[in-house]
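Bug #77: duplicate submission created two jobs. Keeping one. Sequence:
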Amino acid sequence: MTTTNLPTSAAEAFAALDHARQQKRAAEVAETLAIAAAADLYDIDRVRVCPDLEQLVPYGADGTPVLGEGLAMEVGG
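Kept job's structure:
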């Protein structure tokens, strides 16, 4: 088991908090880019899949391309 050295001053604690927030923001950006790539690349193979099994759904405003509803399940985990 490893232990993390905890901050010993308020300045170190705030620096650690800032670092954690930067890491969280970077992870959120990476997640958003991955979801956008998945939306661009996700394809429904109508030959292998029954046409009624997966529907195309508009997830955005008017003019937004429709996506397979399975993408939402994949992204949602």
